[in-house]
Amino acid sequence: MFGFEPARAVTIGDLRELARRRVPRMVFDYIDGGADAEVSLRGNSRAFEEITFRPRAAVSTPSVELRTTVAGTTLELPFMLAPIGSSRLFYPRGEVAAASAAGQAGTGYVLSTLSGCALEDVKTASRGPVWYQVYLVGGRDVARSAIARAKAAGFTGLVVTMDTPVAGLRERDIRNGIPQLLTFKPWTMAPYLPQILARPRWLAGFMRDGGLMTFPNVVLPGTGAMLYASVGPALEQSVVTWADLDWIRQAWPGPILVKGLLTGEDARRAVDAGVDGIIVSNHGGRQLDTVAATLRALPEVVDVVRGRIDVLVDGGIRRGSDIVKALCFGARAVLVGRAYAYGLAAAGETGVSRAIEILRADLVRTLKLLGCESVAALNRQYLDIPVDWGQPSDAAGARC
Questions:
Q1: Closest CA to 380 of 316, 317, 302
Q2: What is the pTM (predicted TM-score) of this model?
Q3: Number of domains in the chain
Q4: 141 catalytically annotated
Q5: Which among 25, 135, 286, 287 is placed 20 to 30 Å from 83, CA to CA?
Q6: Residue 1: inside a domain, yes or no?
């Protein structure tokens, strides 16, 4: 199709195909897959297809304004790059590459706790805002130490993920032999090695980058950086609860957003807890399967919050028109995950920059075709919402 030339990619789907060709199947499926039967994974994207636009005709929009502000941070684009763990599997120094591309585009990057790059290096790589996403792997003291490092390095926001008491069952990972490959036992690994050997260019880069990563931002007492194979058990021992926000607030004086909420009840609790923002998310369909698509959950959360704090959303976003629909529903901005991960896996920083440019061009074109001069002017009047979506926000608002 396009060889390995991301500049010729027209859509995020093109970058997805380039990524599929470059990385081993187990790496591609780690990016591309979801939990269980992947119902929520598919539903996230399908929800955007169910919503249609109501454009305004004969409106002159020679230019459009994409700038927005989220939790006090000004962004040149109404989307940020979402936290994705283990991005060094996709491309050498993957988190550094993604943060650099985001900063050059004037938008923000959210670094996962489970990053293969030190948080200080990631912050240095970006000229834009960088936020730190928190898991409590390793325990409270380990997390507090990482938060202190993030503050010292110049991170400006904290994202607390609340939907990961255990890792979801990613069936593709099991079928691709990731547990067996992590044993480092030759006979156990052997049936799954051909998929790696079939991608020699990826393998060469992976080995030059140090091979299987540790997690340098999760420093365990006495043992150092957490090993890759230790993540699953560590998650089960590090459940985040609402009570944890008290000590996190003491450790972090800046904006705090909570990620992984899907209901009005939890949105109200987040407002009461004094957080600065909510990210409506089902973890890209990678945790509990058959939960609501995030676009379907978004109106209920927005209506409960009533503008008191910022609301963002992620999940299923592949086009700029998807971003516009989320903003029409009241999201302040969105997080994009797989959309840039495909670019990263295809061509590193160049691929991420191409993903951002595709989404930016889509946004401008969509706004002009809608007859809307800025993202701030978007509202639900630009949408046709299917009757069978119902009105969950009315019931949620009545409980406030």
A1: 302
A2: 0.94
A3: 1
A4: no
A5: 25
A6: no
